[in-house]
Amino acid sequence: MASGFRLFRPEQSPRADGLELAFLATYAVCAVLAYSWTTALNGLAVLWICNGLLTAGLLLLPRQQALVLALLCASIDLMAALASGSSLARSLLIAGCDVTEAVLAAILIRRFCGAGLDMNVLPRFRNFVLLAALPATLTMGTLGASGAALMFQDDFLSGWKTWVFGDFLGMIVGAPAALLLARFRRYDLGAAASRFESLGLIGLAAAAAALVFATPLPTLFLLFPLGLLMVIRLSSPYTALMVMLVSFIAASATVAGHGPIAAQFPGDMSRQILVLQLYLATIVGSAIILSSVLAQRAAAQASLRRALAVARAARREAVAADGAKGRFLAVMSHEMRTPLNGIGGHAQLLRAHADLPPQARQQLGVIEASCKVLLSLINNILDYSRLGAGAVRLTPAPFALGDLVETAGDIVRPSLADRPLTLNLDVSAVEGLTHHGDENHILQVLLNLLGNAVKFTDQGQIEVRVELQLAGEADRVRVSVRDTGVGLHPEALSQLFQPFTQVDTSPTRRFEGAGLGLAICKSLVEQMNGRIGVESVAGQGSEFWFEIPLSRLTALPEAAEAEPLGSGTGTGRILVVDDHPVNRQVASMMLAAAGFEVETADDGVQAVEAVRSRPFDVVFMDIHMPIMDGIAACRAIRTLDGVRAQTPVVAMTAATLPEDVARCRAAGMDAHLSKPIEQESLLAAARHSWRSAEGPKWRDSVSG
To answer: With helix as H, strand as E and coil as C, how does 127-150 read?
Structure first.
């Protein structure tokens, strides 16, 4: 809102051509009609819309055009008053008061209704009625009636009522209608009716008003429901036009002595006009208020649609950005796994030499351990990215929790061999029980906690304890990992389980890592509707725990015994397909050292041709290759004739996400091996009985 009482803004926005002429013509027509009514009623003012029209013109037109309009309207007012039989002095008083009232109302509207002049906003319309129209008409009506009483000895009270009521009603009808109609395109939005229907409804309203005021029957109330129903269909400018038209019809009929009001108060013109003005004020107020509410609802709906469109666009951008991030991480994972495969693979091959010096064997052990650390970091970054994107899905299945803890212990124990550190497992609470849950992710959480315990404990013991709270068929399982390691200070506990957070961030810290393991554990446990926590004392050790609900089953499905990894001597012909020479060399040397006959291919086309020309016991297939990738090559193999189409194909790839494994399986591959390749896993796949229904089921390794 403006800070002071002023009429014109420093800069007026452009208006439609011919707007000043439209105001002037409408003012002239309304002035002639209003003076004819006043003359017919011996000086009683019925509906003086002219001042409202001039007020709108002063607000909407540029300064120079507005001043010219005010001067011309005053001249029309003066001539119409003279033509109606008023003296020159009375005509000058009327014209002067009318123009002054319009200017005062325009100033107050500018001050209290905001620069937008939007009568569709209910608080602004309220301010217009109470703080602009009413004060302006009261002020000038009082001055005009006082002037007439002093100059012409008119009755002050009678003149005051005539002046104030007629002008106030005309102001609240004329000014909002003119402001809305002058900016028709701005406000003719969001209505249910089309333009053709709107014109038809206005015609119907006019016909209904003419019918109601053509008979003496008390049917005034019929216009209210009909009008309100039409307001719901019409836009604000059409509503204003309808209200003006109904007001003119009602006033004309009453002045002519027709209609329910004239019939109710025969011969009492003063009472008729007062009731008419109250009736029209009620119609105007109801219509404009309802129209404002509907317009605000339409504006809110449009704003909501825009906000939703922006939100959808932002979501699409976020999804695209997240997808780009995921693709970037997948590509980087693939590219980092490839050199790791060469480093780790050759380290495994070298360590298999019996004549290797102890110092060299120790150095190779460091290389392998470093590869595992880097691989763990890659997996953690992928896991955290997928958890944040909600791409990790739980896959519940029957499993024995006690066996799972024993498996975790077997995985961790080799790293304790050179330290005075023991690992104790207490699974008595779940011994012999079978549960339904996501075994892989539970194992991932447990291995993370065990890995931290091993990292931060130099001597003493690590204890894994499983506790069970029986609750019908649903159990609350608590798994705790307690160590005698370095422990944590109380202020450091709040930093745990946050991504990329290390308790010790000093340049001299002993323990490396990205700080993602515990954050991943927290996300996985919460996804399983559980919780995770820690209790620790600096210098005495820590106890990390997690609790998850698991459904208890009566029995675990029987599984065939798995073949021991790396056992026996390899026989058979193997095809290794990989576009990277180091990867082909590593896999070939591992398989050849176990006694297999190995052939290689550089791409999918060579692989398909090789399988077509001679039999292979297993094909180890890379996925990302030029000319023909591994997915297309496997599909081509499955279309070959005879038994060649049944050749076992195992993906050997750095593409390790669940969707990558699913693509491999969908293409007809029998299994998935992730790079860097572990020699035991490679040999186990080479010796696996792929076509035996009674043989052990292969378990793919998946990241994320």
So the answer is: HHHHHHHHHHHHHHHHHHHHHHHH
Question: What is the rounded distance in angstroms from the CA atom of residue 61 to the CA atom of residue 69?
Answer: 9
* CB neighbour burial string for 489-523, b if at least 16 within 10 angstroms, e if fewer: eeebeeebbebebebeeeeeeeeebbbbbbbbbbb
Helix and strand numbers, DSSP H then E, in the chain: 23, 12
What does the block give as tokens for 439?
């075994």
Q: How far is 275 from 636, CA to CA, in rounded Å?
A: 92
Residue 114 phi/psi, 5° resolution? 85, 160
Pick 421 or 117 by higher pLDDT: 421
Is the pTM for the entire model greater than 0.70? no
* Rg, Å, the chain Cα set: 45
Residue (of 65, 60, 64, 57) closest to 27 by Cα position: 57
* 86-124: pLDDT as tens digits: 899 999 999 999 999 999 999 998 888 876 677 777 788
pLDDT in tens, 483-518: 998 888 877 776 777 655 555 444 333 444 445 678
The beta-strand segments (E) located in 400-530 are: 421-426, 434-437, 460-469, 474-483
- The tens digit of pLDDT for each residue in 624-667 reads 898 999 999 999 999 998 899 999 999 988 777 777 888 898 99
> Residue 222 belongs to what H/E stretch?
none
Residue 614's pLDDT is 92
Encoded tokens for 122: 């209910």
Burial class (CB within 10 angstroms; exposed 0-12, middle 13-18, buried 19+) of 529 = exposed
Q: How far apart are CA 225 and CA 263, in angstroms?
A: 23
CA 98 to each of CA 79, 85, 160, 171: distance values in angstroms, whole numbers, following the listed order: 13, 18, 14, 11
Does residue 560 contact residue 689 with C-beta atoms inside 8 Å? no
Residues 551-559, mean pLDDT to the nearest whole number: 62
567 vs 204: CA distance, rounded Å: 96
Q: What is the DSSP letter of 532?
A: E
Identity of the amino acid at 137: T
